[in-house]
Specification:
By secondary structure, the protein is an alpha+beta fold. The chain folds into three domains: about 70 residues, Arc Repressor Mutant, subunit A (Orthogonal Bundle), CATH 1.10.10.10; about 50 residues; about 100 residues, no CATH class. Helices cover about 40% and strands about 25% of the residues. It has nine helices and eight strands. The strands form two sheets. Strands 3, 4, 5, 6, 7 and 8 form a six-stranded mixed sheet that branches. Helix 2 packs across helix 3 and helix 4 runs antiparallel to helix 5. The radius of gyration is 22 Å and the shape is elongated.
C-alpha cells in the first residue's frame, strides 16, 4: 500500500508541474479537486516541489493562486505506459494517413518511445498496432451524420481493445433502433474521421462493424477472446459493407 501511495504521489507531482506550467493561474482548492485530494495534501506537494528547486510563485490573499515561472521548462517528458502506447499509436495513424504536415520528426519520436518499452511490452505494442487499420476518407453523407461519442464510451472501447476483452454495448442503428450487444473488438478501422470497431457480434454470431459514434453505452465484461486474423473480416472491412 505504501508503495502504491508513493507512486501515486510521484505521478501527481509530475502532473502538477505540467499544470502549473500550462495554466495562467491555478488555485490550491482547484488543484485539490482535480486530483481528488485535500488542500493540505496539495500544499505539502507544492512545498516539496519548491524544495526540489521548482520556481513556484504564490499570490497572497483570499482566492490567490500558484504558478510556475514562465521561463522554466518542465524538462524530461514522463509518460505512463498507457499514455506512451496511445501516443505511439497516434503517430502510427498519422504516418499511415500520409499527412504531409508536421511529420518530419515523428520517426525519431516513435523510435524513442519504442526504445522506452521492455521487449515484452514492445512486442505487445507491435501486435496492437497491426490491429489498427486505415481506410478511405468517409463519404460526405457519413461525415454529416457523425457525432462525437461520449468520453466514457471511448474509454471503455479503448480499454477493451487493448486488453482484448469483450464489451457490452448499446448500439443505435441507422434506423434509430437501439439494441444491446456483446462484441469482441478485434480491430479498429479509421475511415477519417469516423472510427469503426470491427469484430464478432455475439448477438448475431457473426462478424460485424460498429460505428463508434453510434455506441451509446459501453461496459467491459472482463471476458477475454482469441484474436482472429484480419482476413476473417475482409467483408466487413470492405468500404461498401461498413455501417453508415
Amino acid at each position: 500500500m505504501e508503495r502504491t501511495n508513493a507512486n501515486g504521489r510521484l505521478r501527481r507531482l509530475e502532473l502538477l508541474a505540467v499544470q502549473l506550467k500550462q495554466n495562467e493561474l491555478c488555485t490550491v482548492k482547484g488543484l485539490a479537486q482535480q486530483h481528488g485530494v485535500s488542500e493540505r495534501t496539495i500544499t505539502r506537494d507544492l512545498s516539496l516541489m519548491r524544495d526540489q528547486g521548482l520556481p513556484i510563485d504564490a499570490d497572497r490573499g483570499r482566492g490567490g493562486g500558484v504558478r510556475l515561472d514562465r521561463n522554466w521548462g518542465v524538462g524530461r517528458l514522463n509518460l505512463s505506459y498507457p499514455e506512451a502506447v496511445d501516443l505511439l499509436i497516434s503517430i502510427e495513424v498519422a504516418e499511415q494517413m500520409n499527412s504531409p504536415m508536421f511529420l518530419a520528426n515523428l520517426g525519431s519520436v516513435r523510435r524513442q518511445l519504442i526504445a522506452s518499452f521492455s521487449p515484452e511490452k514492445r512486442s505487445k505494442v507491435e501486435r496492437m498496432k497491426s490491429r489498427i487499420l486505415i481506410g478511405d476518407t468517409a463519404s460526405t453523407y457519413v461525415q454529416s451524420s457523425m457525432n462525437a461519442p461520449p468520453k466514457r464510451v471511448v474509454q471503455a472501447v479503448h480499454q477493451a481493445f487493448i486488453d482484448q476483452k469483450t464489451i457490452e454495448i448499446s448500439y443505435q442503428r441507422e434506423d434509430m433502433e437501439v439494441s444491446k450487444r456483446v462484441i469482441e473488438p478485434h480491430y479498429l478501422l479509421l475511415n477519417y474521421p469516423v472510427w469503426y470497431v470491427v469484430g464478432m457480434d455475439h448477438l448475431r454470431g457473426a462478424a460485424r462493424t460498429f460505428r463508434c459514434d453510434r455506441i451509446q453505452l459501453a461496459q467491459g465484461t472482463g471476458t477475454s477472446f482469441g484474436l482472429l486474423p484480419k482476413d476473417a473480416f475482409d467483408t466487413q472491412i470492405d468500404g461498401s459493407n461498413l455501417a453508415i
